[in-house]
Design brief:
about 280 residues, alpha/beta, Glucose Oxidase, domain 1, seven-stranded mixed β-barrel, about 15% helix, about 20% strand
């Protein structure tokens, strides 16, 4: 592609972007937001350098000149992120349960092509509120079959996005307790809808490699393990903490997730977008 085509020639990238506007599917990371898993490293953001020593917000640890610089602390499953197999699969030579060759596959080894593709947006919002205190309602193969009866079979290479509607609870504290803290820690609130292991097997049988959800985890509030093992042991990729899936049609959008490239990461935060054809 020459410079004229890239800038705006017929069939150029600019033409595609004009036809397919970008939709941000990413939650906000911040100290007031429920962007980290309860009981894990909380997200922190601090000022390292301010423009001038006079009137500087605290804490300021350096004076480097007339610039603002901040530092952040986050674990590798903070905010929207992709789970690598090594998140739940130990190395094959560890002697631990569920150990396997994929236990050495970290976030940087996930191919970017696995994290972009046509989206199949499965609406399961009817399950909101169906769980008990600390318990998630299950997304089952029957939910997937019902969607396929309306939209056609899931296709190999599609990225399945489970639209639970749970992102409505992604709010600043204290309202944000309902997102993950109350379902997991206090057990005072219901859990988010989560796919049963059989549903993950069903999708894998359809050729699905990448699965996303607009909730804190693919795992359930009461069972984080079995949904993770079922997919990650077979090289599936899980994108968690999506938002705004209601802006995408069941089919017709293109999904892209670009993770940070962090050596040895068991998961990689990043930015997710959907590209939806502009309506006439």
């Amino acid at each position: 592609m020459d410079q004229r085509e890239a800038a705006g020639g017929a069939g150029s990238i600019a033409d595609v972007l004009a036809e397919y506007p970008v939709i941000d599917l990413t939650v906000t990371n911040g100290e007031r937001w429920p962007c980290w898993w309860p009981m894990q490293m909380p997200f922190q953001q601090k000022v390292w350098n301010w423009f001038a020593e006079s009137g500087a917000p605290a804490p300021v640890h350096a004076y480097m000149g007339p610039v603002q610089v901040r530092w952040i602390t986050l674990d590798d499953h903070c905010g929207i992120h992709v789970d690598a197999p090594s998140h739940f699969v130990p190395p094959a030579d560890s002697g631990l349960p569920h150990a396997g060759l994929l236990g050495r596959q970290t976030g940087v080894q996930i191919s970017l092509t696995d994290l972009m593709g046509p989206a199949a947006v499965v609406d399961v919002t009817e399950l909101i509120g169906a769980g008990g205190p600390g318990v998630s309602p299950w997304i089952t193969p029957d939910h997937l079959r019902a969607w396929e009866a309306r939209q056609g079979p899931l296709r190999s290479g599609e990225i399945v996005l489970l639209h639970t509607g749970w992102d409505r609870y992604y709010q600043p504290w204290p309202a944000g307790r309902a997102y993950a803290f109350d379902p997991v820690v206090t057990r005072a609130g219901p859990g988010w809808p989560a796919p049963r292991a059989a549903a993950i097997d069903y999708m894998r049988g359809r050729g699905i490699t990448t699965l996303g959800i607009d909730a804190p985890s693919i795992g359930a509030a009461h069972d984080a393990l079995s949904p993770h093992y079922t997919g990650l042991e077979h090289g599936m990729r899980y994108v968690e903490n999506l938002s705004g899936l209601d802006q995408l049609a069941p089919r017709g959008a293109y999904f892209i997730f670009l993770p940070l490239k962090v050596e040895g990461a068991s998961g990689c935060p990043g930015r997710a977008i959907g590209m939806r054809r502009r309506r006439a």
